[in-house]
Amino acid sequence: MNIALTTITLFSILSPGIIFRRFYYTEEFSKEYFKQSYVDLFFASFLPSFSMHFIGVTFIHFLGNEIQIETISILLSGNDNPDFVTKAFSNIHSSGSRIMLYFFVLAIFSAMFGYACKLAVRHFRLDRKYKLFRFQNEWHYLFTGEILDFPRVLGKSENISFRFVDVLVNTSEGSILYMGILADYLLSNEGGLDRIILRDVKRRFLKEDNHNNANVYYNLPGEFLTIESSKIENIHITYYSLQIEEELERQIRDIEID
Fold first, then answer.
1. Is the pLDDT assigned to residue 91 strictly greater than 80?
2. How far apart are CA 28 and CA 8, in angstroms?
3. Mapping DSSP to helix (H, G, I), strand (E, B) and coil, where does residue 198 land?
4. Is 173 in contact with 205 (CB distance < 8 Å)?
5. Which one of 3, 39, 100, 180 is most buried, by most CB atoms within 10 A?
6. What is the pLDDT of residue 258?
7. Residue 178 three-state SS
């Protein structure tokens, strides 16, 4: 039997796991999925695929139907026996519509279940409490302040109102210190930091530091400043918490806007 057919069969069996992982690693964690090699993706899909098929087969048995395990075995083994091959293709032909429906429903379920698992991990903060569930985008935890929820770190991320960032950059004019509020960041294809985006930015030329002109910052016009990671020497982050007194908060809520 052609090895290509075996490969297609194996890919079809693993497709629910691949879809599950694709929807589990979404949004700010999507780079974690794409930076994997095909070999890593192949082996990492075994367990979720087995789980999805277990649920699917259990549901099929509940409806009173059976799965032709013998047909799957023949396709995976690459058996060249004409009788076995003919029987396998005959079973596929007679049950083609049901097989397609099975994989279609399982694909939708895998996508929904994968995204639901990601939401559950994030909602219950399992990724912050346990390393087993932690995503590899360490910049997210650092920039959002969720690192404060790690077991060995003091603080709570919900108290953060905004993040203030100092970025030391090397240029042809010398070292420059940029200071501003963190607006956003972008990751490279490898999952590392690609660039950082600041707003309300000030800059300071370190070569101007002297006894008569120290710590002088210059306001930069514009809405945002983008700094490439290749030019960054280090980043200093400060988390700020703004608290409003109860009386002032009550007065703000009572304000009537015409």
1. no
2. 31
3. strand
4. yes
5. 180
6. 45
7. strand
Q: What angle do CA 241, 227, 165 make, to 5 degrees?
A: 20
Question: Torsion-angle region of residue 125: left (phi > 0), alpha (psi -120 to 50) or beta?
Answer: left
Q: Which CATH class is domain 162-240?
A: mainly beta
* Average confidence score pLDDT of the chain: 82
Integer CA distances (angstroms), 177 to 8, 204, 218, 237, in order: 55, 5, 10, 13
The token pair at 90 is 């005959």
Contact yes or no for 75/5 (Cβ under 8 A): yes
Nearby residues of 44 by Cβ (< 8 Å), 6 or more positions away: 17, 21, 36
Q: How do residues 151-186 score in pLDDT, each as one tens digit?
A: 988 888 888 888 999 999 988 878 899 999 999 999
Report the alpha-carbon angle 178-184-185, nearest 5.
85
How large a percentage of the chain has pLDDT more than 90?
40
